[in-house]
Write a structure and sequence with these properties.
The protein is an alpha/beta fold. The protein is built from 18 helices and 17 strands.
């Protein structure tokens, strides 16, 4: 059945009601956020984010269809300009209804959100030096500390940003990496920006004890999860493996009926019982041939509310170096606005006069961080330059692989509404970086990274080749797509 034609006068009433509803709901959000003393430069961004969140409480699909029928914007690309877009659509409806056309907002106002986002990206990553507008961020391997040529290759390829992972190496190696990066700066070019990732709380497997001569864990097996010092504790007779967890607080917080994932989800289990400080879990999915449990593999508890501070003692120790040498900080496993406040307080202690000039990269890695993303962004960006990293590795395990594609889109929308840059990260061109040849799926994934302001590559033997591929790929895709908006350049294939 064809859609019913809705006259412009009726749609004007609907748009007016929508604008009024957004104003009320957005004001309530802003009232809560204002306690964070939002800097003047971010206030219009916070306003637009509140407007967007208020808008997305409504099901707009019927309105979109009616607007499309009249040849008007379907409101599907208004993330950076919520109220100006609605007002402009209303003006067009009024003109169709017989009123004299009057442009409701000028060009600068209509595109102000795009300009703020572009300026924020340039401030964080520098001016793009190749044909692409998306910046490149490269993870430094340990060898970069003693190989000046590595940084020279990156500078020659126009890489804008470096990522140093504080979970590896130490201050001596970090200092040499940064010195090599500064020395590699090309004449007339800005130096590469240096971002240093804090390690965050490590929820990992520790010692592992096999029972009944077991060598691999299979679906249907029972495992016991215990504190680091309890590897030799007595376990039920049907347990095949005892696994220690590096964070005892996680064991205390978990409960029967919650999921337990080990080694990037290769072992999926359900917690079935607690016996004192011990968790018992039944393996519900793994490879048919089984998995060998190993130490230092990640543990995820996606259903468990973990009251674990994102800023650990090790992070606080690393911050003394980071605050002195880095352009920005990668905040691992940030989960709420209080985590942001804790880091900002520590930065203010270390750099009391200009801590708010340091960029803060919010690494979104957990289901809780997703649910509290608007508050996390506003609490951070209220005081300092901010970017959001879609850390798709841990995030996929936390929310499920089936939801990752949907969620990375929504994070892109929220960040654009807040007018903060996005870093597209984790496993970008991973097979190419590791083996020298990409697969088809990862090329498509990397192409979609053109919607972000920065794309991150991890370390590997074919990293330089991957940079060359990505440079070309992003440059081509940006002629076709900007955020959610197709760019209708001529199609040469059918000319």
């Amino acid at each position: 059945m064809a859609d019913r034609f809705v006259p412009p006068a009726t749609l004007i009433i609907e748009i007016d009601a929508l604008i009024q509803s957004i104003a009320v709901d957005a004001q309530a959000m802003l009232a809560e956020w204002r306690e964070w003393d939002i800097a003047p430069g971010f206030q219009p961004c916070a306003q637009n984010l509140a407007d967007y969140l208020a808008l997305r409480r409504h099901d707009l699909r019927p309105l979109q269809r009616a607007l499309m029928r009249l040849g008007l914007s379907s409101l599907g690309r208004l993330e950076s300009r919520v109220v100006p877009a609605l007002i402009t659509v209303r003006a067009a409806l009024a003109a169709l209804n017989g009123e004299i056309w009057r442009a409701p907002v000028d060009d600068d106002t209509f595109f102000a959100g795009d300009a703020r986002l572009a300026a924020a990206a340039e401030a964080l990553f520098g001016t793009a030096r190749h044909t692409r507008s998306a910046a490149l961020m490269v993870t430094c391997p340990t060898e970069a500390a003693d190989d000046p040529a590595f940084m020279q290759h990156l500078a020659a390829r126009g890489v804008e940003a470096l990522r140093i992972n504080c979970a590896h190496d130490g201050p001596a190696q970090w200092e040499r990496m940064i010195a090599h990066a500064r020395a590699a700066t090309l004449p007339g070019a800005p130096p590469m920006k240096v971002f240093m990732d804090l390690a965050g709380p490590k929820l990992r497997t520790g010692k592992i004890r096999a029972h009944h001569h077991a060598r691999h864990v299979f679906t249907g097996d029972r495992i016991a999860i215990v504190a680091p010092d309890a590897i030799d504790c007595k376990v039920p007779a049907d347990v095949r493996f005892t696994v220690t967890c590096t964070l005892p607080e996680a064991i205390a917080a978990a409960a029967p009926g919650q999921r337990l994932l080990i080694d990037d989800g290769h072992v999926a289990a359900m917690i079935t019982a607690r016996e004192g400080p011990m968790l018992l879990a039944d393996v519900v999915r793994t490879r048919d041939k089984g998995i060998k449990l190993r130490s230092e593999k990640g543990i995820n508890l996606p259903d468990t509310a973990l009251a674990i501070p994102a800023l650990t003692a090790a992070d606080r120790a690393a911050l003394a170096f980071v605050a002195k040498h880095a352009d920005g900080i990668g905040y691992s496993f940030v989960q709420n606005a209080d985590d942001v406040a804790a880091l900002q307080a520590e930065l203010a202690r270390l750099r009391p006069h200009d801590w708010d000039r340091m960029a803060l990269v919010l690494k979104i890695e957990t289901a809780r961080a997703v649910s509290e993303l608007p508050e996390i962004i506003v609490r951070a960006a209220a005081r300092q330059p901010v970017a959001v990293m879609i850390a798709r590795g841990d995030l996929a395990i936390e929310i499920g692989f089936a939801r990752l594609a949907e969620m990375q889109e929504e994070i892109l929308w929220i960040a654009e509404a807040a007018q903060v840059p996005v870093i597209w990260a984790t496993q970008v061109l991973e097979q190419l970086v590791k083996e020298g040849m990409p697969n088809r799926g990862e090329l498509t994934d990397a192409a979609m990274g053109a919607r972000a302001e920065c794309v991150m590559l991890n370390k590997g033997p074919y990293l330089l080749e991957a940079i060359d591929w990505l440079d070309t790929l992003l440059g081509r895709m940006e002629h076709h797509l900007h955020k959610k908006t197709p760019q209708l350049r001529p199609l040469a294939s059918w000319a």
